[in-house]
Amino acid sequence: MSLRYVAHHHSTRILHWSSSEMSTSTPSSTAPSTSTNQKPLKHRSVVSSFIFKLPPAYFSPPSSSPSSSLPTTFNFDPSIQKPLVAQFKRSDKVSTYTHHYAPISGSIDPTDPSPLSAAWREIHEETTLTASDLKLLRQGKPYTFSDESVGREWTIWPFAFLLKDPAGDGEGSEKRIKINWEHEGWAWFDPLEVRDTEDFGGVPKLKESLRRVWFEMDLGLEAGKVLAAGCKRLEEDYVSGARQMAGDALRILRDVIDKMDDGVLAGEYGDGKEAKWWKDIRMAAWHLWKNGRESMGAAIMSALLSALASVEAEVFQDHATSSKSSGKQLKSTIVSILGREISARPLTNDQISRSFASYISRNLPSSNTPQKPISILTLSESSTITHALSHLPILRPNSVLDIRILESRPLLEGVSLAASLAKALSTDLASSNDRQHSITIYTDASACHATQGVQLVVIGADRIASNGSVSNKTGSLSVLLATQHNAKEAKVVVLCDSEKVALPGPPEQHVVEDQGLEQVTRVWMGEGSSKRIRGAARTVLNFAHATRSEGKKKGKRHEEKEKTQVKVEVRNVSFEWCAGGLIDAYVTEEGEWNDENVKKKSEALQGLEKRLFEVL
Questions:
Q1: Is-contact 171 80, C-beta < 8 A?
Q2: pTM, to two decimals
Q3: What pLDDT, in 10s, does the model give residues 143-159?
Q4: Quick check: helix, strand or coil at residue 142?
Q5: φ, ψ of residue 310 in degrees (nearest 5)
Q6: Contacts of 321 (CB under 8 A, 6+ apart)
Q7: Which of 194, 195, 421, 444 has the fewest CB atoms within 10 Å distance of its CB?
Q8: Distance (Å, rounded) from C-alpha 52 to C-alpha 68?
Q9: Strands 28-29 and 143-147
Q10: Cα 104 to chain center, whole Å?
Q11: Checking phi first, is residue 499 left (phi over 0); if not, alpha (psi -120 to 50) or beta?
Q12: With contact defined as beta carbons under 8 Å apart, do 428 and 394 qualify?
């Protein structure tokens, strides 16, 4: 046990620890007691939040994303050489596990919107820390276990938070930790030295909860750092689409496996599908799904599950033979399988493009008339849509395209799409002197004008719910509604690969991603804005910063200092849901789909997710 620092109870506020019950059906569990002499166990769902300090060089390779949400100069502690995790010693005033080390824990109340919300609430109640002091680092896979000694069946929702160090002095937000009555002290530990032993003095399953957020314990430091850097890269990627990010997740998983210790792979292979190495690989994939960019999680999860199923089918098909493989041979086999999955991905866009050309031939009869343009409206910049539109004149040589594109603020992806298509179609035009394609860029506010007379509206998908609703770039819904009003005969097509289909569940379950005000206000303050607009932008920003910092002096200047009663916010929601009833077809690599095809795909995915992830 390495004890660096102990802070004793010094808060006089009394904050009650809720004892509310909350059931769950998703986590893996250990079997509860079946003894007839035991009273029924009371079930409690609780959050377990581990607070970490990390050295500056921990994430390697460093992220180069300009929109990093985890800047090195802000959240890392230059005074330490290795990761440290805080453990809080429970006082004699709590009902269970007195004088034992634990993370910040507490029940999930019925009024908590989510387990993560409960985690933030408990952290503030027990330490006074807020989002100004901490950043969510990772979530862990929940699990269930029973403890008859206290008459409880616990469902644990683990989270890891990173303590910020804004001052760069090695203490930072640590100074603000003020424990309440539930704790008598706290200490920093090397996470690799945390044990589920009596002499360590932790609560039951402490190490199990920790390993679910600190995967370095199972994967080893080298493979763990590759996974940590990979999750961070996915989290910060606001340029790539869901399909590209899914491919990146596969490459990260391949690199993690390549860095795993050969001895671990060989030493525990004899347990077949229950071997620890196979569980570790699946858990690594789970973290890439849940701790990357969650709004892109459907595509990432689908790609990872498909790859894991391929590994399972090939590696375990002949256990008697494959069990004799060395760790090095096994690693080579798995890396090779993932390599094939990665190499096959570019072919999907070709298949989707052919499906799209066939759909147009079947559903737009007038498109078969030479020299009559096909009017197509789209927005944002989907790699799948770019490929399909640029290849349409090749797959349908008589096609003349009238392409309309919304500029797609605040990042203006539509402008980039227009440039890519102009280059691709000019090459096609050079071989045909008797036709000319057209591309028109519309402002987002003129979406209604763009829909007039359009024959086909094409949107991409970052996620497709099991009921057929589609999550895509904000602005998609207004386009579809305008199309219903202005172009009732137009077809609305979702052009995407089938891995965008999510697990069963309503769209409301999925994350809402707000990118903050910087992307929006950058345009306001640009050279193209007038002096009046730039001045107005500064005023709005002053109020917005004052609102964001909860009335503190930080962010308030000049005449706005005393006007905190005015709440000003800038919303920048990236994606929105379009109901399935607004969509005519889903064109995928498997051809034209309807909402029933989407439902079947979602259900099949659920079966695969349960088999590979549920028992972890």
A1: no
A2: 0.83
A3: 999 999 999 999 999 99
A4: coil
A5: -65, -40
A6: none
A7: 195
A8: 19
A9: parallel
A10: 24
A11: alpha
A12: yes
